[in-house]
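Final report, closing paragraph on structural work. Over the funding period we assembled a curated collection of sequence-structure pairs, and we close with a single example.
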Amino acid sequence: MNDLKNKQSGLLFGSYCADALSLGVHWIYDSQELAKKHGRVTDYKAPGSDSYHPHKQAGDQGHVGDQSLCLLQFLSREKKWDPPMFMDEWLGMWPSYNDYIDGATKATLANVQNQTDKTQGGSDSVEIAGPSRIAPLIAFLSNSSENEVVKAAVEQTVLTHRSEEAEETAIFLAQAGYRLMHGSNLYDTLNETAPEWALKKANSVLSENAVGAISKLGPACSISSALPSVLYLAIKHGDDTETAFIENAMAGGDNCARGLALGILLGSANGLSSIPESWIKNLEAQITLNQFLEQVSQISQTEKQTQN
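Its predicted structure, as stored:
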């Protein structure tokens, strides 16, 4: 596996593995309760009947991860990024969906009823869920320009999250993921691409452990707390993907959406080889992700041959 393929695979698997690792303890805000009930989360856990995801199994994705998989499956089938076509796909997943439906989704579903152009019905949500879904787009467009990746990431995000905060975060994750996938240094990339306000918050708690830092920053869904928390984990544990993902899970709150974003950064920085084999093997979507990566590789080879 060459370096680009390793980082491209790392970006994709990193996003989904970090989400799946947090699923069993998703939206538990009392970190002491989390640790007492579940111990140190080092493997996938089923969320349980008393959770927000009673029908999910160990190794599944959370409800935002499911939306990201919807994007991946769309790209795999259509072999192109097309916002109106994908919006139809996204809208089609909800009538039979058997898991938690978040506020931004409910608002978007209501808004599009009054829109001729369904791509204009996004909610005004400032949650990190919207931009955190973009790992498949970055991997799929790996041979495109950075500007094209950023454009696609923003288009995906505003379909459901039409806020300045969500757009700013999508731009950051797309730029950082793209550059890291192509070999840039993690810390330089974060300093060059992350919003200054979020970096400042993250750096202010670097002396704390993850539970303490994320408790201070805020463990909830809003970008104002979630993005600095992601940056804190990426800076604090930048060369240790496994520990970063575990600490993210143990900090509780909206660890699933944070995980999707954190996985983009550290997966692309450190590559597939930095993710424990058991997490890759036991991920429910493993075969789907590998098939997608193979498709992306074939498309890339075809494009190279055409250019030559």
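The two ends are 23 Å apart (CA to CA). The mean pLDDT is 97. We thank the funder for supporting this effort.
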